[in-house]
Queue: 2 jobs
Job 1
Amino acid sequence: MATQGPFDTVAQPAESEWLVQPPPESRTRERRGLSESTVIGFAAVVIFFILWQGVGFVRTTWPDGVSLGPITFIAPSQLFLPAPLDVFKAFQAYVQDGRIWKDMAVSGQELMTGYLAAVVLGIVLGLLVGWYKRLRYALDPFITFLYATPRIVLLPLFIIWFGIGVESKIAVVFLGAIFAILINTAAGVRNLDANLIKVARSFGASDLQLFRTIALPGSVPFILTGLRLGIGHALTGVIVGELVAAQFGVGQMMAVAGATFQSAKVFAGLFIIAGTGMLMTFTLQKLEQRFEAWRPRPN
Amino acid sequence: MRATAVKLEARRVAIHYRRQRSGLNLIAVDGVDLRVDEGEFLSIVGPSGCGKTTFLNAVDGLIPIASGSLLLDGNEISSPGPDRAMVFQQPSLLPWRTVTRNVVYGLEMQHRAGRESRETAARLIDLVGLQGFADAWPSELSGGMQQRVNLARALATDPEVLLLDEPFAALDAQTRETMQQELLRIWGATRKTAIFITHDITEAVYLADRVIVFTARPGRIKLDVKIELPRPRDLRLKRDARFIDYERMIWETIREEVIRSESRGQAIA
Ligand SMILES: Nc1ncnc2c1ncn2[C@@H]1O[C@H](COP(=O)(O)OP(=O)(O)O)[C@@H](O)[C@H]1O
Ligand SMILES: [Mg+2]
């Protein structure tokens, strides 16, 4: 073999040579998927529940209160603030008597039907309104009026029109969610990079091509924001709708439980709603990560 | 001597913009007469706001002309076409497409994308010196690298006329010189007709067979010089006495123009 000077070979190192083993400590953490934020957040939640349960413990141990010198502390009654274990028991009872499935099915149907209809129509209308100036001029007064009005106030009308079944709730969920989606989508289209439109035109793109390759992908971040805001509006619509008038549903259960002073059951309903909202937001986040692989990742 | 065909011809071309407020028209370009030969590299310089971009957009077919005629191969230009491609001042890459998919974008829009377009893209990515970045996102590239993609995207459609609107203006001096050399290398290999807009006189002289100076708005042709310097050129040419003479002549013309427009502006104000 010919002898070579140190600079004779400039071969690129294979990709594997660029990969470096991270120091052992950080590796184990990564494998368990435990970031600092997860650990601290989880610990805070655990502490919160322990303290909350502590209130219940004080109540059962010292029903007449604890005296520290001249001051007497009395734990709030179970009616006022049930402890987490009470809530859990109420939840168990709710599961065992079987009502939960019917309620969740009804609320779920109202939420999903209304929300999905709002998503489809909100995106389509938003794209059109963003794209066609004249359509925007025509629809702007209505959108502004309805967006400025809390749509929940339409509930009495919807109950007259559609009755106290799922239909009135679907209508409220739909109207609650659609405007956030529509308005954000339209803003996405209107904020398109004019340079990109010029590029498309310069290469002879048709309107449809321009729409598909620039307008649609360009407004995805805005659409996703609208979808996220829409979830909150949709959940509010279902629950408030059921609180007002309904035969079944998680909100209706809470209304009855509240009227009959079953506060633990009200809390159980609250956790169901919160869980649903978190699940939907989480699903949307996964969707966002898929759509936005191209975004620069902040370090 | 080889007879050269006229590729592009502008006759008394005027371009107007409609002003939203006053309803009056702004004359951006007024009475441009110009012939560009096939395979010629033409640079256009002029004070900022004199209508260079406007003129180039009209050649690309993006905006209509108000009067005169603008002919490509003898046919009136009325819309963008696959025989022209623009390298924009901003890289203007689609951020949600990888480098490869940005390079084939023009082909897609012209319904010419096929199985071989991936190979075309790979070849062009090599040509502009971006080996290994085929699957990178634009956000992962520096400004200079993005401009290379912008160039590759225009070359991908294999246009007969390449239109370049200050493509290197936003780059640092070092990168700009590298890009100039790259462009000359690529142009030398393809010999496409090229119209290159810049406000950098050195760049104009270095690249072009011919430099045109536009007057301050409305844009007209003030000076038209053939750059008779040998090719292939390298950066040492920028210190050649003849090169510097060309630069000085063009610089004087532009200075005159700027002073004229400033005194006119003050008279109005
Ligand atoms: N879209 C437009 N609408 C109205 N006026 C414009 C528009 N684009 C450019 N102009 C005006 O036309 C003139 C020429 O602009 P431009 O061609 O961009 O100049 P340059 O590229 O030489 O700097 C400028 O005065 C500018 O203000
Ligand atoms: Mg310009």
Note: Chain A has two domains: 27-75, 82-294.
Job 2
Amino acid sequence: MTQHTSYGEVHGPRAGEISRRGFMRRMLGIGTGILSLQFLGGTIAFLWPNVTEGLGAEITLGTAEDINSAAPDWAQGLPYIYNPARLFVVNVPAGKARVAQESGGAVEAEASLPVPDPGEDVLALWRKCPHLGCQVPQLCEFSQWFECLCHGSQYTILGEYRAGPAPRGMDRFPMRLDGDVYIVDTREVESGPPPGTVTFDDREPGDMQHCAG
Amino acid sequence: MTIEKRPNATADKNAPTQAPSEAPLAAPGAGPKLPGPPGVPGTERFRLLAYVKQESMVRVDKRPDETVLTWPHLLRAEFVMLMLMTALLVVVSAFIRAPLEEMANPVITPHVAKAPWYFLGLQELLSYFNATVAGVLVIPVYLGGLMLIPFIDRTPYRAARDRKLMWVFFLCLMIGGLIITFIGSFFRGPSWQWVWPWEGLFFTL
Amino acid sequence: MSDGSGNRMTRWLKESTVWRSLFRHGVPRDRRTRVMAVMSNVFLHLHPVAVRKSGIRLSFTWCMGGLTFFLFLAEVVSGVLLMFYYRPVIEYAYQDIQDLRAHVTLGILREIHRWGAHAMIISIWLHMMRVFLTGSYKPPREFNWIVGVFLLVLTMLLSFTGYLLPWDQLAIWAITVGTQMALYAPLAGPESSFLILGGIEIGQGTLLRFYVAHVVLFPLVTAILLIVHFWRIRKDGGISGPV
Ligand code: HEM
Ligand code: FES
């Protein structure tokens, strides 16, 4: 092939150095990159919902007395359905006692019915099924479990996973007592406990009759 | 001397196929690097810069009888198609009502909650596998797999007989998807239990 | 109009500057004017002036790409008409949909829009099948195949966001189940659900978000990708030749 002598010496930055143009080009690239990221971040920030009422805000449920007058069965352990935020407000001691009673001795509980004021021992379970989001209905009368009708996921009264296609127990919201008024903070969802968590009610799905699944 | 040579390979005319003297004036680091000291015959290497397939070049040399004019041949076909489609759409719409149920109520879950039909295959899959596994498997793998097809199937053949494996693989995917979509659509009822279509149809478009 | 005034009128019209500024060539009757017709019109110019015979055979393309495009156009037209009556507010949306059927003249627009959407999903899958089966994704068409996959996703998204808008039981529960499924994908946590739904669960925020995505965002992106798609078909040498 041809000789290359006619091309002369090669001028360029020495190794490890960067030319003026190269520098400018790089800065331009970085600048465009930063700008795009800012645009993306700003868009997401703008679209981030700021919820001020209903689910996504702090919700005042009232005192135990208020709940008892709205739902007389609460002291008997039946979870109180608070629909504006799609919640089961579970009176834990009464609920446990109820399951113990209805299960015919298969489960044991400390308290006995009724329990009109459980104090801090209350759970706010979200009625949205962690499987595909259906509304979880009130306790099944046969099993005393929550049984989702959509695809048959089953949870105990404490929202622990027992059966079905759901990936975990029922999601919940932190609850606190302000004086004697219950306040649910629905700004942050707490994921339900993983399958295999058994703190109460260790019956197997095969032990009883069910409403779904 | 190595020359990558393929039939019809045409290098860009402006590209430096000989020596790199111009390269540093352009972007540093960019541009083709030609190893081998210049001037020593037998050490230059040539790189393939572009491989322009015959098919994708402007077809000046093709015989005219292979093609027909867009106006009227293609446009006529398109027009007929457009008219047929519009007519069909209007007739179907005049006779078949779009479904509308009761007003939305977040507090009442219907006994059968199904996704739109084109996701029912996915919903059916979700009922077999652990949700996270199916989520990982189905959406990214399916879409990623689709996008990668041209890079997996590197053979230059296009006829079915030359790529039986790909055909079988792809058709299995498509038909499998069709079958589970069918099952999810017509064979699943309340609680996602198996239901024969003649026992009740739980499907809305 | 064999003679006299009619002819003179036409002649005068056709020689006027206005006519000539609109139509730069004669009636497409011969080869030259037909080529000109396609070349000088921005819309027709999506096409090359001549196509392979095989490319317009129904047995080769099944006409499915073209049909998908026409369905997209039909959706745009019927969708814009629907927008004149529909309000994306949970108090009104459902009622507006009912009124569209009961009180609007030619109240089948909603049907056209809905059946068209279903048809588009079927035709886009068939189109993808034919592109695969004829091996038309092979070089140099790899990139167009990827553009196609994005179009597929967008078509599904368009259909999915539209599904919520009637705000009936069918809509919200299908969308609940659908979004929940999508959120099983890796990297998608409760945050993305919050962002998509515009709140912790489906409500007014979701309806408005889905509406804007459905009528502006996704159609726009789809239209842009369609331009790329068609441009690439031409740059890659037209519809692929016979297998
Ligand atoms: C909104 C959706 C789409 C529209 C409107 C559309 C439209 C078209 C049209 C009109 C053609 C010309 C050939 C034909 O009619 O078959 C075409 C070709 C093509 N399409 Fe699409 N398409 C869409 C989606 C897709 C998808 C989902 C894929 C694949 C994943 C895809 C891949 C291709 C490829 C590779 C070609 C070139 C085929 C050839 O040259 O033979 N497109 N498209
Ligand atoms: S949504 Fe509850 S089991 Fe599927």
Note: Chain A has two domains: 2-47, 58-207.
